[in-house]
Write a structure and sequence with these properties.
Blueprint: H1 2-33, E1 41-42, E2 45-46, H2 62-70, H3 96-107
The chain binds heme C.
Length: about 110
Amino acid sequence: MKKVLMMLAVVLAFTALNATISFAASGGSLFSSEGCIGCHTINGTGGSVGPDLSHEGGKRSLGWIKTQISDPASHFAPGSSDGSYAAIMPATSMSSGELNALASYIESLK
Ligand code: HEC
């Protein structure tokens, strides 16, 4: 009986780990497929129209990042931001699952 429980615990732990890994990977791939990478750099790869997001998680909360993706104009007035960026970021509409995955990925960058 103890052996069976041990096996079950190992299987469960492995499943949880697997889910965490694929979650993180899909946020990273959304960063490319949603076009974010054209304007933002993460760890040396990407554009420079918007700010570098390599350490974004140390700067902003998960909720703030979600709002930034779905409604950037609520944070920055067009053309003003902090004066360093001429263009305002376009709003992106995606499913709430995708929004969660993408925002969680960006929030994990510290
Ligand atoms: C056309 C260029 C462009 C695209 C595409 C774009 N952004 Fe932006 N982003 C900007 C600019 C410019 C800013 C600076 C604020 C402003 O002026 O809107 C910004 C700001 C941000 C910020 C806030 C940075 C900070 O802490 O001040 C985050 C987070 C962000 N973008 C994430 C994303 C994600 C995720 C995507 C893809 C869904 C994306 N951006 C797509 C141009 C872009």
